[in-house]
Specification:
Radius of gyration: 20 Å
Number of helices: 14
Order of helices and strands: HHEHEEEHHHEHHHEHEHHEHEH
Bound molecules: alpha-D-glucopyranuronic acid
Distance between the termini: 42 Å
Strand order of the largest sheet: 1-2-3-5-4-6-7-8-9
Strand content: 15-25%
CATH superfamily: Alpha/Beta hydrolase fold, catalytic domain
Structural class: alpha/beta
Shape: globular
Length: about 425
């Protein structure tokens, strides 16, 4: 487990260092994202959709285009099984709920992967909505419980997130605010994405190869596989009687915010998405010239994507899709896009423009869309909500408060955000 801690520390250190080396300091937070959006080019290609039916008819081809040009295959139908389950703490969070651990297996045979899911369920009758997170951090830190298993299979040795990470990246960079979730009546589940598929150039490829669904293609990038991890968790929790299956949210920060978007675009069981500071390959536009850029992300993290992403030699302008279309695939479900003014690397400006360009698809569904007046406004009741705070990359109390406001607005009072409950007669399940 000490090894685990060290690995985790070195991951963050490497991340910070790599960021410093490959970027200029301004992008890392010595600069502010522009709040001007009207003077920038509109996202391309324009979204064409005359009606819900028209849009529904286009969705399969659009998903296919994202698989071909950005993320690689979605391993549809890849087997998921629950291997074991144990009660870790019946009096978790000061007796406000229970903590369990479920081992989930994804795939079959030699290529199958296992990961541990921490699951915190509040006291009471339910059914409860659930937020499913995936993180950089082993579950020991996320749930701050020594009874869980570390990612190397040993018992947790430490549950305290080192001060330096909390100082730089915020109090909730690793630990989840489970008490606050419980107070709102949400269950929380989380897994360490690298335990499922390693976040490492050399080691990811053979693992991805092993995740081939019967008659289908194996993922070629970790984002697609990590996204499938969310779906695997939903499979593993389905039909549990504490769970309200119409109120399933996914949460991810940064690279995991990218994975959360991919998961929701592919899996219609996800009814709300919290994608925080997802940046390039997430909610930021691939054609944007500010922030990380496609050239940098594909050279530093080639294992996240399909090898085709940004490799045409013509740059991102040649891509047949851009990320506003990925957001549109999530409509009319609830989508939160978190940003910070100094997190220029993740490009808050193009993220806002992507949301603006996707918003008409929410409107088609009669679901409202982006209802705010510019990047600095905040409308948690809107189904497509853009959040911008001061400061840099990370997850702090202000982000958590905004996320809770958003989830309260969309999941409160047992009002599922299920598409079929929206005010439009023409919707069927396929539209969700
Ligand atoms: C790097 C990377 C980003 C990513 C981030 C993270 O900074 O360049 O694209 O979002 O790591 O996952 O923290």
């Amino acid at each position: 487990m000490t090894r685990q801690v060290l690995k985790w520390i070195s991951l963050f250190a490497a991340l910070a260092l790599a960021g410093l080396v490959v970027s200029n300091a301004a992008m890392l937070g010595l600069n502010y994202a522009s709040l001007e959006t009207a003077n920038k080019t509109a996202p391309k290609p324009a979204i064409e959709a005359a009606s819900v039916e028209d849009w529904s008819g286009r969705k399969a081809a659009l998903r296919q285009a994202f698989e071909e040009h950005v993320y690689g295959p979605w391993p549809d139908g890849l087997a998921v099984a629950r291997v074991s389950r144990r009660l870790v703490d019946a009096d978790y969070a000061g007796g406000r709920g229970r903590l369990e651990e479920i081992v989930i297996r994804v795939g079959r045979g030699d290529g199958a992967r296992r990961f541990h899911l921490g699951l915190a369920v509040p006291e009471g009758e339910g059914p409860f909505p659930v937020i499913i997170g995936q993180t950089f951090a082993p579950n020991c830190y996320v749930f701050a419980s020594p009874g869980l298993t570390a990612s190397d299979g040993d018992p947790c040795e430490s549950t305290q997130v080192p001060f330096i990470f909390r100082y730089i990246f915020g109090e909730y960079i690793a630990r989840a605010p489970v008490r606050s979730f419980f107070e709102r009546g949400f269950a929380y589940a989380s897994f360490h994405a690298s335990q499922f598929v390693p976040d490492a150039r050399g080691r990811a490829a053979p693992v991805l190869d092993g995740l081939r669904p019967e008659g289908g293609e194996a993922p070629r990038g970790t984002l697609s596989a990590w996204a499938y991890g969310y779906s695997a968790v939903i499979d593993a929790l389905a039909r549990e009687n504490w769970l309200d299956e119409k109120r399933i949210a996914v949460f991810g920060h940064s690279r995991h915010g990218k994975a959360a978007l991919v998961a929701a675009a592919q899996d219609k069981r996800i009814q709300a998405v919290i994608s925080h500071q997802s940046g390039f390959g997430g909610a930021a536009l691939s054609r944007s010239r500010t922030g990380e850029t496609v050239a940098r992300i594909t050279s530093n993290y080639p294992h996240w994507f399909d090898p085709a992403y940004g490799r045409s030699g013509l740059g991102p302008d040649a891509l047949p899709v851009d990320q506003h279309q990925l957001l549109a695939l999530i409509a009319p479900r609830a989508l939160f896009l978190g940003n910070a003014r100094r997190d220029v690397w993740s490009d808050p400006n193009s993220t806002y423009r992507a949301a603006e360009a996707a918003s008409p698809v929410w409107e088609l569904f009669g679901a409202g869309g982006l209802e705010q007046n510019g990047m600095a406004d905040w409308q948690p009741d809107a189904r497509l909500a853009y959040w911008l705070r001061s400061g840099g990359h990370g997850t702090d109390q202000r982000d958590i408060d905004a996320i809770l406001e958003f989830l309260d607005a969309h999941f409160a009072g047992r009002q599922a955000v299920a598409c079929r409950e929206l005010e439009t007669a023409s919707m069927d399940d396929e539209n969700c």
